[in-house]
Structures are given as structure tokens and as C-alpha cells.
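Researcher: We're teaching a course module on how sequence relates to structure. For the next exercise, students receive a sequence and then see the predicted structure as C-alpha cells, so they can try to spot secondary structure elements on their own. Here is the exercise chain.
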Amino acid sequence: MPYQSLSKAKQTSFEAMHCLTIALLHILAVTVDKRKDSNYKEEIRLFSALCRWQAETGGRLFLMISMEREQKRMYERHFHEMKTVTERTKKFISESPPEFRTHPITQRAVRQLREWDPESSAEPAVRWGRPVFVTMNGTPEKPWFNQQLQKRER
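Model: And here is the predicted structure for the students to work with:
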């Protein structure tokens, strides 16, 4: 059943995102340990997507804190949880085998995570969360149902 208030729905979705991230980190830790001496292809792909998702979500959270003043406390709490999840991700990297750590995709994911160091500002991470504006050239086509009505024989 959908939530009646938008703030409750946002809070629940953020909590679910943090739980999902922790669960994915746990799954990655288990599979990397079990698949020693392999190429870690699937694990590296999942880890890269997880790090990119963390950077984008953190950037969006930072923008929400700055734009929606009435729910600032909720967003700041989830922003803090996001940094905690990032620290757990860094711990996972330090405990992973060298073959996993030295892969170029893992190195790129680690660079994305470095944007969330507590000492630095969140400005580099915000660029990942800025909205994308799509522009169109020309005029849009007529909707398909109007075209069907125009072609109908009378």
C-alpha cells in the first residue's frame, strides 16, 4: 500500500537503499572469498555499479539537502548514513584479494568513492547528481492514436 505522506515514502525508500547497499556489500564479500584465483568478472561489474550508484545517490542527497529546507534533517541523516556505507565499502576493498583490488574497473570505482572523503567538500559528488536536461530540435510528432484516427476510412 502506498504511503499517504510523501516524506514517509522518501524516508522508507532511503532506508531501503541503505539496506540494499549493505546487503550487496555482504554478498560481494562472500562471493569474492569463495571465488579465489578467478577473474572476478561478475563481482567487479557489480562492485563498479554499486560505487557509481553510491556516488550518484550521495550527490542527489546533497542537492535535496540544499533545495528542500523543510526536510533538511531527514536528508542530512541519510547523507551521514551514505558516508557510513562508503566507509564499509572501503573496508571491503581493503579486505579483498589483490587481484580484485588491482583491476582497472575497481580502481575507477575507488576513485569515485574518494569523492566522499569526510575531509573534502561534497562538490565533486554533486556533479554526478545534477539533473540532466533533454532538449528537442524541431516539433514533436503527433501521437500515434491521432495518426490512427486520421487514417481511418469514413
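Model: If you want an answer key for the exercise: Residues 6-132 form one domain. DSSP finds seven helices and no strands in the chain.
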